[in-house]
Design a protein that fits this description.
With 159 residues, the chain is an alpha/beta fold. It is 21% helix and 14% strand.
Length: 159
């Protein structure tokens, strides 16, 4: 048997017995058991859903669903600044989805779209083949001797 160790025991009052509601009037929590008097919430199973209005037609069902949402068709880009490319890529390397996945900068999803932004400077000659490039980033890459190819434009010209 393990001996009593006062260092490992819980302090007084830390471990309380749970309140036993609805066990008679002498317990102090009998009769209505803290649920008030009558009504749906006092009954067993008397729960309602979010937006319930007492049987009245809820607001979200009264208002017509109209219009168009562009949400399913939106394009989300993973953005990289030039300072990240300068730090992670060597001179003469190609920056594309495969190289970004290989260097651990993006997860291995094929549907990811990549955009290069112009924050920072690039001094290495790198070839960039991505989905979008900002004008300032394109100018800085070409000034350093690199090349920029937008993947969508290349795919459209092949057709």
């Amino acid at each position: 048997m393990a001996e009593y160790n006062p260092i490992l025991s819980a302090p007084y009052g830390a471990n309380k017995q749970p309140k036993r509601v609805g066990r008679g009037s002498s317990s102090g929590l009998g009769t209505t058991a803290g649920k008030g008097n009558k009504g749906q919430q006092s009954r067993s199973g008397g729960k309602t859903y979010v937006g319930f209005e007492g049987g009245q037609m809820p607001l979200y069902r009264r208002i017509a669903h109209k219009g168009f949402s562009n949400y399913p068709f939106k394009k989300e880009y993973v953005c990289f600044n030039l300072d990240v490319l300068e730090a992670k890529f060597n001179d003469g390397e190609t920056v594309n989805k495969e190289s970004l996945i290989a260097k651990g900068l993006i997860s291995g999803k094929a549907e990811v779209l990549v955009k290069i932004l112009g924050n920072g400077d690039v001094k290495k000659k790198i070839n960039v083949v991505v989905d979008k490039v900002s004008e300032s980033a394109k100018a800085k890459i070409e000034k350093a001797g690199g090349s920029v190819t937008v993947a969508d434009a290349a795919a459209k010209s092949d057709k």
